[in-house]
Amino acid sequence: MNQSRLRQLRFVALAMLLLMIYFIWSTDKITLQGERTIYTVNCGNGAWHGNRCTGALDAGPRYRYRALKARGEVLFWVLGSKEPSSKLTGCTIADGRNWTCPVNADANKSITLALEGGDPLANAAWPTRPLHGVSKMTWVFLKLGWKFTNVAN
User: Fold this and answer.
1) What is the Cα–Cα distance from 116 to 100, expressed in whole angstroms?
2) Are 58 and 128 within one domain?
3) Cβ distance 60 to 111 under 8 Å?
């Protein structure tokens, strides 16, 4: 194999590796310590109609959840907030991306009481905060001021 061909193969391999790292980072497919971050949005100068905002979406708080399977607890907090973490108890936990918890005293501080496949579930009967989530990349773009959508997931 000549030097030129070897350089091309190295470049392609590096490009594929970087693309894979970007995909893992942007989708949060791998998280530390069984944690899951939910990226939320606010509806600025408008109102919510289902998942559609009549105004402009703004990057909202990021909720981080950590499932403690052995204790049947899910700890959660808002990243960057000075408020202390909260706890859901009596939870049924398969892993950090699949769990469900009953209503408790801290439920009104959370946006969900269950994750399924890493995605938060919403239930109108739960006393949780409204859930308007987006992908990590959409949240990053909104944080940078790029307003290209008015629909949450």
Assistant:
1) 8
2) yes
3) no
Question: Could you tell me which residue, 15 or 125, shows the higher pLDDT?
Answer: 125
Burial 45-83 (b: 16+ CB within 10 A, else e): eeeeeeeebeeebebbbbbbbbbbeeeebbbbbbeeeee
In a domain, 23, yes or no: yes
Residue 24 has which token pair? 């893992």
Total domain count for the chain?
A: 2
Query: Kind of pairing, strands 73-78 and 48-49?
Result: unpaired
Distances in Å between the Cα of 20 and the Cα atoms of 13, 16, 31, 34, 44 are: 11, 6, 15, 21, 34
Decide: helix, strand or coil at residue 58.
Answer: strand
Q: Which of 14-18, 59-63, 71-75, 141-145 has the lowest mean pLDDT?
A: 14-18
Domain around 26: 1-30
CA-wise closest residue to 77 among 109, 118, 101:
109
* Structure confidence at residue 1 (pLDDT): 64
Measured from the Cβ of residue 111, the count of other Cβ atoms closer than 10 Å reads 21
Long-range contacts of 125-129 (CB under 8 A, 24+ apart): 127/103
